[in-house]
Amino acid sequence: MNAQAEQPLLEFLSRGAPDDTAFVFEGHAISRDAFSQRVDATTRWLAAQGIGQGDVVAVWLVNRVEWLALLFACARIGAIVAAVNTRYRAADVAHVVGLSGARMLVLEPGFRSIDFPAILSGIDRAAVPALERLAIVGAGEVAAHWPCVRFDALSPPADPALPVQGGADLPVLLFTTSGTTKGPKLVVHSQKTLATHADSIGKALGLSPRSHSLLAMLPFCGTFGMASVLAFFAAGAPIHPIDAFDPTPSLRILRDGKITHTFGSDEMFRRILAATDAPKPFPHAQLFGFAAFQPGWREFAVEAGKRGLPLRGLYGSSEVQALFSIGRSDVSFEDRIECGGWPMSPEARVRVRDTDTGELVAAGISGELEIDAPSRFLGYFRNPDATAESSTDDGFFRTGDIGRLREDGSFIYETRAGDAMRLGGFLVGPGEIEDELKACAGVADAQVVAVEIQGQARCAAFVIPDVGASLDEDELRTHVRDRLAGYKVPARIFFVDAYPVTDSANGVKIQRAKLRLMAMEKIAAD
What we know:
- The protein is of the alpha/beta class.
- It folds into 3 domains: 3-20 and 27-190, Rossmann fold (3-Layer(aba) Sandwich), CATH 3.40.50.980; 247-416, 3-Layer(aba) Sandwich (Rossmann fold); 421-525, GMP Synthetase, Chain A, domain 3, CATH 3.30.300.
- It is 30% helix and 27% strand.
- It contains 16 helices and 28 strands.
- An 11-stranded mixed sheet has the order 11-10-12-13-14-15-16-21-20-18-17, with helices on both faces. Strands 7-6-5-3-4-8-9-19 form an 8-stranded mixed sheet, sandwiched between helices.
């Protein structure tokens, strides 16, 4: 078997000259050959730890070269990486590790701003029955319920043989997506879906090793960060990762590294621009792709354009991968910055279905976006029912997003069809926050809605107390903060006797739009 032909991610390792720079991390250049050697060493290390085909390794790391080495090594031996968001707290981590069945959890307890040991102490061993050990990257120790081993891929076992058990169509990476009940679903991608999409991005953007470079300021644990990094690595262009987003070092790298490309949210670019008074601080910038998460993003894009930021709107999801589509530079500014654009892959197909009639609609009419593309996921991990529900009879993915086609072959994303909220740059299902609130003593029920507070997307909760119960808003918020990521903590919690409801053919429904209006009115009054 030709390992590289059968494993398209590994084929990326052989591209470019060995001495070409693959990464510049913390001021140190890492050549493509040096990275390939790290992948080999990590592969041997994983094999020595008993990790093989079908095993899951949960990676709970900030952006580090080790993150990517683990992905490529798992691809080689047929293991699977479960990406764990570093902003997750105990309940989130336990859900992903438990649902994935991960045997090993890789983390860096010495990272400056995350108290990994405290978070681990809040995880019930029964919630992660398959977890056997923790692998510690870098400095730091952790006292935990599980045995700890040092991730030491620089000193792998002496055995020269490299296990090769992976394949193009086997699962290799699990992303999380929003959940409506107990937590996020796990989105399965293979080497083929990841590698094919990376190549599509490189071709669509015309990436080249000598002319382009990437500031990787998005987390590798999400499809937004991973898709861009794999695309630039596949194209042989150097990548400058930062471990966690901060506007000051981002500004420095963009300027001093003469960076041509970067991707992020509108809020990230807003913070970077606020850190400099230079009228046009990035003369080398060619494409800054952004996702619009905050109110007023169009006005910001106009101001950013005046300062030389070449912003272009994007669209993507965990299921079809980020950077699925992008605005073109040869269209009007207004069209260029819209979320959506043209698919990266010429094989991708996008259509729109009327949510009321179920019929496909023509350009200009809004409905649910449906997508078929080489970047499409394999399914939801260990959730065949959700996988089946997400697909049409002819194989298109039901995105749950509302948008419309344009006559020129592009499309515009408008909003989510359901109740999912965009918080902290992540799509969040209200159900997981509601479940945490309902787990508190004295809470009969809870509903969570998205609101805007001082230009920021936040969430607010409405709680119905048990009869005779006395609840405290701060105590409830503390409970959620201890269990979930900070961006999921309600900005306000309001206590009510009942929710506004309406009768429908399918029964009584809570009027979430009315709850959102109530929350905004209460916040404004306060």
